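> call design_seq(struct)
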């Protein structure tokens, strides 16, 4: 991620008088061109970075400049470290881990124990349970393509099961609803598309270089309002019993439950009616019933009968 690299470069420049661009490029495994873009971004942030020419030249901070530690309160540093911990668990980046150690090292000895306690009171870990090797491999390929500004080719299966071969320009990785997406420009469609990482297979970083396009963050497709506007959303009323109440609490929160009678609870939630919604309701198990709308209850009933029929056929043939 760019932000952890920028912070790391600033900390490194505070410790060393001058650093060669190639040394930074090798350290962070990026191109020299990327390093110079990073230096420009640091300068625009108000930190006086100077490029010295000649045999003893390199990149350094203006003589006498110091990053004022008082600019950051203990709470500021704690929040930064907790954010970096979340990035580390999600992306598995060694640069993030190194940066975490650097932040810990700038804390005075007298406050290190208290700092350690405060930064372990709240942990955000977006990584899934179990073996994540396949997802991590895809993430690595996409990150590699983005850092080199090269297109990534892959086979994609959409929600309807249609399979297409894609070669796109990856711009942004998006983590939303515990699912990874790639926001990329698709030359075939001549527009930006959002690709679900789990639906991608065999990603390959190509030799084709692309120029990053301007993004308007006001109209990005993972914006909640835009997503709801693009799909018809209606309220579903689900009924839970005593055995399934914990599922309602886990998914919707304790305050969403309305007790109809002893041991019977209902939850009204807005959902777009699609294949995902059907699968989600079925995944809640036999102790959950659709109360409204009636056509959805009939749909789930037919799907449950079809599932049961499949198992009857398997049992009879075995």
């Amino acid at each position: 991620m760019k932000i952890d690299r920028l912070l790391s470069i600033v900390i490194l420049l505070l410790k060393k008088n001058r650093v060669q661009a190639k040394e930074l490029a090798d350290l962070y495994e990026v191109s020299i061109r990327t390093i110079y873009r990073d230096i420009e971004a640091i300068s625009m942030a108000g930190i006086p970075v100077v490029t010295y020419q000649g045999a003893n030249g390199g990149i350094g901070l203006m003589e006498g400049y110091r990053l004022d530690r008082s600019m950051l309160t203990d709470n500021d540093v704690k929040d930064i470290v907790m954010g970096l911990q979340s990035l580390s668990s999600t992306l598995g980046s060694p640069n993030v881990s190194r940066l975490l150690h650097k932040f810990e090292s700038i804390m005075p000895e007298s406050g290190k124990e208290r700092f350690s306690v405060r930064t372990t009171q709240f942990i955000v870990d977006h990584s899934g349970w179990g073996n994540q090797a396949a997802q991590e491999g895809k993430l690595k390929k996409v990150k590699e393509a983005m850092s080199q500004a090269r297109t990534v080719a892959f086979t994609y299966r959409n929600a309807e099961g249609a399979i297409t071969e894609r070669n796109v320009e990856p711009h942004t990785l998006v983590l939303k609803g515990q699912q990874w997406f790639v926001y990329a420009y698709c030359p075939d469609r001549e527009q930006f598309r959002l690709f679900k990482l789990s639906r991608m297979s065999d990603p390959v970083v190509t030799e084709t270089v692309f120029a990053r396009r301007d993004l308007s963050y006001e109209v990005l497709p993972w914006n909640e309002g835009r997503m709801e506007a693009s799909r018809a959303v209606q309220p579903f009323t689900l009924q839970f019993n005593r055995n399934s109440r914990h599922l309602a609490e886990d998914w919707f929160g304790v305050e969403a439950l309305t007790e109809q009678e002893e041991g019977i609870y209902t939850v009204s939630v807005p959902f777009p009616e699609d294949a995902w919604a059907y699968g989600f309701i079925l995944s809640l198990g036999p102790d959950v019933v659709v109360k409204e709308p009636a056509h959805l209850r009939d749909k789930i009933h037919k799907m449950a009968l079809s599932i049961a029929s499949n198992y009857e056929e398997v049992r009879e043939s075995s």
